[in-house]
Design goal:
Order of helices and strands: HEEHEEEEEEEHHHEEEEHEEHEHEE
Strand order of the largest sheet: 1-2-4-5-6-3-10-13-12-11-9-8-7
Strand content: 25-35%
Mean pLDDT: 74
Largest sheet: 13 strands, antiparallel
Helix content: 10-25%
Number of strands: 18
Distance between the termini: 5 Å
Number of helices: 8
Low-confidence stretches: 154-160, 229-236, 341-395, 417-451, 455-483
Length: 483
């Protein structure tokens, strides 16, 4: 079992830096290749969310790209796509590609990868400082007249130790029956003081991190949908943290107050969010060197449209002095919980006894316990990890066993399973294609490579390193053990 969720053991927290600088710290991997970085510290997985906090990946991609451009170039726009949910237990590799090197503009593309797959991609454009000339076209939207931030309260992120602070303000036009007329508002700032060594790049990364705070959640708030009330009943270990429970309880109570003020839904009729995740995220930086992310910034969000299971949110961010410093756009998946009849007819998740994503001669049954790492797996078993299954996720707590009603002759007449469906338990931080080979079952030796490129030993083949996994299609997969 991996002891920590990073490629390299995380160093101690640097007290000379702010909390958000420590969270977003990157480690260059020059020995692997140029312009490749990884997260130095584990990333936060919000309770009830499908993956890690999206703002962290956005900010670290920006931080990685900023290291590859000249100091007099500053980011002015970034366009991001969330491809897959990030796993907080797996390190992320950030690959920076130099797309263009111009006199006034430079372009970078960054891919965030886990297990060899892209989970997030972003294209950023950098502009040379002062390239606009002496005479300029200038205008900007003014900041609304709102009360200043309260100094008391808790951080958002991981309880009392979150990397930034957030102060919500009541929804504007909350009594309106039209969601597109409402605006959600809050004050945000990085906790502590960002160090001078971080420069303007650290403030831009911090702003990118905070820009994802309750962004797509605006759709649920302006429609007065239930989101956090159901999350308090989650079974995640995060819900055992009293500070997390208190934080979610406070948000749920705020939702109830907002719903009572709007009076849009009657008791018992309020729809509940079934799934809400970000699909893309865009930031336009207007004054990238004229603000501090460790000082209060005012954000205002509105949703001009929602439909077809998606929602769109616009956001403006001002400095405390009223200068517009960024505009953001995000589209997200917003699906409501359906009634039981509709949910059962549309569900695509595999259940016990289902062979939707298994060979037709196999069925899913529950394992009494996880097999010991040093015990050879029986040939009737195939342990499948959800993240490596190409179709439907199968829990690792299940096994595949031969169905008694399928005879040998009938089994041989069935179509052979796709080799892509044959998977092995391997170290989830490494790419499966580099560590496993599918070969005919009658071959006694398998060409399997270890992480350092050396050949496996006999002890590896029967002990801690390698496991053979049997499948009815006549194939055997050997892979590095991940436990």
């Amino acid at each position: 079992m991996v002891e920590y969720a990073t490629l390299i053991k995380p160093p101690k927290v640097d007290p000379s830096k702010s909390a958000i600088e420590n969270v977003l710290e990157l480690t260059p991997l020059s020995t692997i290749g140029p312009d490749i970085f990884t997260n130095t510290r584990p990333l936060w997985h919000p309770p009830g969310a499908r993956g890690i906090y999206g703002g962290a990946v956005i900010a670290q991609c920006l931080s990685a790209a900023q290291r590859t451009v000249p100091a007099h170039f500053t980011v002015h726009s970034m366009h991001c796509y969330f491809v897959l949910a990030g796993d907080a237990e797996i390190p992320i590799l950030y690959h920076v590609e130099h797309v263009r090197e111009g006199k006034s503009f430079a372009t970078r593309t960054v891919q965030a990868r886990q297990r060899g797959r892209c989970i997030f991609t972003v294209t950023m454009s950098f502009v040379r400082e002062g390239s606009g000339g002496r005479r300029l076209v200038e205008h900007e939207a003014g900041m609304p007249d709102v009360p200043g931030p309260r100094e008391e309260g808790e951080g958002v992120g991981d309880g009392d130790g979150g990397p930034f602070l957030s102060r919500r303000i009541e929804i504007l036009n909350n009594e309106s029956p039209h969601p597109h007329e409402k605006k959600t508002r809050q004050w945000v700032k990085a906790r502590g003081q960002i160090s001078p060594d971080g420069g303007h790049q650290a403030h831009l990364s911090a702003l990118a991190y905070m820009s994802d705070s309750y962004f797509i959640g605006t759709v649920s708030r302006v429609n007065n949908l239930g989101r956090f009330a159901a999350s308090r009943n989650g079974k995640s270990k995060a819900f055992e943290d009293k500070s997390v429970l208190k934080h979610l309880k406070d948000i749920a109570e705020l939702e109830e107050r907002e719903n009572r003020k709007s009076a849009r839904w009657k008791d018992g009729e309020r729809p509940q969010i079934g799934m809400m995740v970000s699909l893309d995220h865009t930031i336009y930086f207007h004054n990238p060197r004229d603000f501090r992310a460790d000082e209060w910034m005012f954000t205002e969000m509105e949703s001009p449209w929602a439909g077809d299971g998606r929602g769109l949110v616009l956001q403006k961010i001002w400095s405390k002095e009223g200068k517009l410093i960024a505009s953001c756009v995000q589209e997200g998946l917003v699906r409501l919980k359906q009634d039981e009849e509709l949910g059962s007819s549309q569900s695509k998740l595999p259940t016990k006894g289902s062979s939707t994503s298994c060979p037709s001669s196999f069925t899913l049954t529950k394992l009494p316990q996880r097999p010991h790492r040093n015990r050879t797996l029986p040939q009737d078993y195939q342990i499948i990890k959800p993240q490596f299954h190409p179709h439907q996720p199968i829990p690792s707590s299940h096994k595949l066993t031969k169905r008694p009603d399928i005879t040998r002759s009938k089994r041989n007449s069935l179509p052979k399973p796709d080799p892509a469906m044959i998977v092995a338990e391997i170290d989830p931080r490494l790419e499966p294609r580099d560590l496993a080979h599918i070969t005919p079952r009658n071959k006694r030796t398998m060409p399997v490579r270890r992480p350092n490129g050396s050949e496996p030993s006999a002890r590896d083949a029967h002990g801690e390193g390698l496991r053979a996994v049997h499948d009815c299609g006549g194939f055997v997969v050997h892979g590095l053990g991940g436990s």
